[in-house]
Amino acid sequence: MYIYVIRRILLFIPMLIAVSFIVFMLAFIAPGDPLTGERIDPAVDAEVLDQRREALGINDPFYVQYFDWLGSVAKGELGNSINYNSRTVEGLILSRIDNTLYLSVFSLLFTIIVALPIGIYSARKPYSLLDYGATTFAFLGLAIPNFFAGLLLIYVFAFQLGWFPSQGSVSTVGLSGFDYFFDKIRHLILPGTTLGLASTAIYMRYIRSEMLDVMTSDFIRAVKAKGMGNRSVLYKHTLRNALIPVITLLGFEFGMLLSGAVITEAVFNYPGLGTLFLDSIINRDYPVIMGINLILSVTILVGNLLADICYAVVDPRIRYD
Amino acid sequence: MRGVYMKNEPLLEVNGLKTYITLENKKQAKAVDGVDFVIHKGETTALVGESGSGKSMTSMSIMRLIPEPSGKIVEGSIKLEGKELLKLSEKQMEKVRGNEIGMIFQDPHSSLNPVFTIGMQIAEPLRKHKKMKKKEAYKKAVELLVMAGLPNADQIVKMYPHQLSGGMVQRVVIAIAMSCDPKLIIADEPTTALDVTIQSQILGLMTELKDQTNSAVLMITHDIGVVSEAADKVMVMYGGQIVEKASVKELFRNPKHPYTIGLLASVPRIEVEQERLESIQGTVPPSHAFPKGCRFAPRCKHAIEACTKTVPELIESSNDHEVRCILYRGEETRPCDNHEQRNTN
Ligand SMILES: Nc1ncnc2c1ncn2[C@@H]1O[C@H](COP(=O)(O)OP(=O)(O)OP(=O)(O)O)[C@@H](O)[C@H]1O
Ligand code: SF4
Ligand SMILES: [Mg+2]
Fold it and tell me: What is the CATH number of domain A96-319?
């Protein structure tokens, strides 16, 4: 087990370096720089622009820029934003990442809480009314794009029914304690549901088919032949095996959540990493773009690592390689 | 009292058992179609027949583990020491499974849950049926493994199935089946998935344990070799029915049903030089489309017109030897004469 985990972590390091390189490359080869827009303005002298470029290090050769950047990343410095009054990128990201984390965790919990019982029920009673309902929901959940589902939820639950807010992450400043907490949650419900919709659909079907698969396997018949009751057969033996691939997939899912939040945050004007990312792209704020790209890529890598470790925890066949 | 040999006392009585499966095209597969037999205490009874003849369905019917809702026991009676199993509730049936009847499956590796330890999987029925505490059940698990011929049992209980070889896992499965001192052990092809050398070790172990505990064994196999090695009595199954029943000695010396004769002829014999292995022509009819009369008629060399009219009854043609073939109604012809000539020329 430990050897397995250590091996995975060692593998993680070269992947991290590769990712940092790709993130840097993408920003480097992208056309234009933060001063591109100003060139069109005849009032700005081209020489002045060049001086500013020199000062920003934009004219340095590729490898110098890469190692400069890597060096500061290692120290936790991601540079300064060009648009947000030169605030540090790490500061900007930190100010937004908590909101995105809440959103991600909320949607992940939503997925698990909804998909698990429905998936199990569908497997226990396949072709029942609820199973057909779940199938329909799953198709819709997969077919409808995220932004559209978001708009639909806003229309119904915010505009028509007025139950939940459609924008932002808090309604009034100065709330504290429980009021603050509940206000946050209220703001999370619509975007969190939107974000979790597609994966809920996938997991529901996935859990159902995995359960059905395990249920027909020989060892389940053998467990029944030992006289074990329904509950033991279903929740101990079947579920435990059916969840192996599901838990593994959840690790990946966790890594993808932050990146998945970008569109949803935009729809709900939710002040998280996603909206910051979109703003930075529009403003060609490369330090911020790179910073967020790095964070997203690293979470995906961490998600994969997590998935591998979870896999070993739940499946002894992996653990005792 | 355990250990006292009480032969000839009936343990399991199966009467008129019919288990049908509704196929996807709505046709009915008559997997088990009117099976009667008695298993006596202390005996090993073999159930032999080709693939698809209904052996596993018979054993799953006894355990009441027919896959629902497509499969269903439509008729018959299964009595264990006089107790009608088909009338028990699911909860009551759970107390029979693993407790009064233990079961051993064909592929040992696929009959254990890959994510739990061996110890846990042996302890499970003990905790349920014998109400043992966790510690006690694990201690018993170690004892059972030692009894099943695995000396380093205290390490094995902590292991997972994939860490053991096929032969070792089958010993574990036997330990599970024996754990609650069952009266009957059903072994569905217990050695088919194993190496030849391991096969007879496992058969030996089963016979030894059966004798120690005075339980009975229903040994399902398509291997005539297994029958001669381990069984006291044999039942030959064909097309969902039993076509011949006798003691092992009697059956090997004096096979009667043309199908049984064909089965025996297809076994390689060292003492007789055979040009090629005799085998029965044709295939088993699918159980949703049996021929009208004798189910073996399309493949039978001795078939006459009367064979295709009605299904022959299982009749006692001589002492303790029953056969389902119209040739034996008056005991006038012996189709095996033919067969013996070929073997001795
Ligand atoms: N799950 C199933 N669905 C449909 N038909 C089945 C199913 N299982 C068994 N049958 C039918 O029941 C008949 C008997 O099957 P069974 O498994 O009892 O045969 P068997 O004698 O154990 O053969 P084998 O040696 O291959 O294990 C088969 O002919 C098959 O048509
Ligand atoms: S009844 Fe007829 S067809 Fe059937 S086994 Fe006997 S001789 Fe052959
Ligand atoms: Mg079978």
Answer: 1.10.3720.10
